[in-house]
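Sanity check record (used in CI):
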Amino acid sequence: MKDEREDLRFGVTLATDRHPGQSAAEVLARTVEVARRAEELGLDDVWVTEHHFLDTAVNPSALTLAAYLLAKTETLHVGTAVTVLPLHSPVHTAEQAALLGQLSGGRFSLGVGRGFPGVEYDVLGPGLAAWRAGLAGPLDRLLGALRGEVSADPALSAVRLTPPVHTSSGPPVYVAAGSPASIELAADRGLPLMLFFDKGAEAKAEMVALYERRRLSGGHPKPAAGHAFAVFTQVCDVPENARRLMRDRARFILSLNNHPSRLLGDAVPAPPPVTAANIEHLADTLLSTHPVGSTETCVERLAHHIRTSGCTRVMCQVEAAADTGDVLRNLERLATEVFPAVRHRVGTARARITV
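Expected output for LLM class flavin-dependent oxidoreductase:
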């Protein structure tokens, strides 16, 4: 039996969180410092996010930041989590992904999704109709471009990317999934899932099971890479400090989707407001389900997520603290105390997926 630990990858998600009083320059400098330290500590991956017009997150281009971090590192794999594909030209995104794959020697991965129907859909041009149309059209055009099957006119021959993709299969493409439709979309195309903070281990397992049922019923290929999942991960020996940090994270999460499109109307339920009650409720959820707390708590919950869900790409959000030194200390404890213990605990046990 193949050792599951060979497929297990640990990485960090860097959301360029801006805490009160911090400048954009300070946040971006911290992001680069954490990425470089992650490489020094032997982590596998760094994932970067994309947010627009927010005071709490300062990176509007996951592709640009990924390119910069690839240039600042030598062995670390860098991916987007995610590039909001309907806001970009799918063909141009494919060109950039191919270029980053070539420049980095295959260290780039592309995560795509459609995000929340926020004001960026109004301001950046595509309009809310692009969000309502879903991800299938842009995703297929992206994948076609990576295969060299893109043309402005069906009567014309397809054009190929310059430079071409680094390998015949191109960079790994992940699909951010939060609904049955997005899971089935990924399964139909043989692409791995990217699952986020709002789902617990059991919910992630159900999503992976739906993926497998869809994939098998359609005779679709297995994804070339393992499914990825994101969690808040904080080694914190003092419970009061853990609550304070997760309260800050809850406030950050609630702030992300509170600029909905003015064209939205009643098409999508309004996001929960940033109130004290909602912050406390979400903080309670994070504290009870995410790898936050003592070293043993972090090990136990990470192992549980991996074994239960079947996902093998771990995306740890490590930026809960405002001070860069605290973020780096958390990262070092994860790399030296938590991740080795999780690898040992997971061992060769295979995830139990019901299809």
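The chain has one domain: 4-346. If this sentence no longer matches the regenerated tokens, the check is flagged for review.
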